[in-house]
Amino acid sequence: MLKLDNIVAGYGRTRILHGVTLDVPKGGLVALLGGNGTGKSTVLKTIVGLVKAQEGQVTLAGQIINDVPTEDRAALGLSLVPQGKEVFGGMSVEENLLMGAFHRRRHRTEIAGDLEGVYQRFKRLRERRNVAAGMLSGGERQMLSIGRSLMARPTMLLLDEPSAALAPRVVEEIADAILALRDLGLTLLLVEQNVGMALDIADYIYVIRGGRIAFEREVGDGVAMDELQEFYLGGKEHA
Ligand SMILES: Nc1ncnc2c1ncn2[C@@H]1O[C@H](COP(=O)(O)OP(=O)(O)OP(=O)(O)O)[C@@H](O)[C@H]1O
């Protein structure tokens, strides 16, 4: 579904990604793990087109999209789920959700149907539909961020550290929500620092360090936590 082939990218003259290759199969749930400043967000920005690949190819559903503008990548089914802290705090929950449908010209009844779908998935958002997003808990904000992306009817979601700054019980709730999206048939790339969560839900794991993929492995009996930690931050526990 999504392939990065030897991506070199950065900011101005500074190179951050030094040849990143990764593959997210259709319907798969792939995690990209790494510590602070290792290039995870730059990978996501390159996929959505906010950072231009200086070398290499970004392929979505068989189409090379290096030259496709960011707004048109959304129309190809790609949606970035920012961290929950990036919701519009002064707007209500419902207004935030409707923003997700904004770029698509769609009939009002269709949008109402999508909104109902998000409320069924995240019951707490329905209860709090008229509350300012800034008043929500961290977990509710993360649900809102995912819900807003779903309003654009994506086929592939890129999740930027959905577990960041959340209590373990809430992380479990978000993990369940992500698994439910996979069961729905969505393709998911999850960027995380939370190794435990990623191992619980992902089918395949990449670890990025210093702008390079340092480790990759199918999740199953083969991936041991300590082996991952070694590649993750030189053996240091981080998340
Ligand atoms: N807009 C920018 N201009 C210049 N350098 C940047 C910019 N954004 C990020 N960087 C640098 O690129 C490197 C990688 O940053 P990136 O945000 O991709 O890391 P990350 O793995 O997502 O880290 P974090 O988990 O802290 O968000 C860092 O050294 C950072 O300082």
Automatic annotation (TrEMBL):
Residues annotated as domain ABC transporter: 2-235
Pfam families, alphabetized: ABC_tran
Gene Ontology terms for molecular function: ATP binding; ATP hydrolysis activity; branched-chain amino acid transmembrane transporter activity
BP GO annotations: L-amino acid transport
Keywords tagged on the record: Amino-acid transport, ATP-binding, Nucleotide-binding, Transport
Assigned protein family: Belongs to the ABC transporter superfamily.
Record's protein name: ABC transporter ATP-binding protein
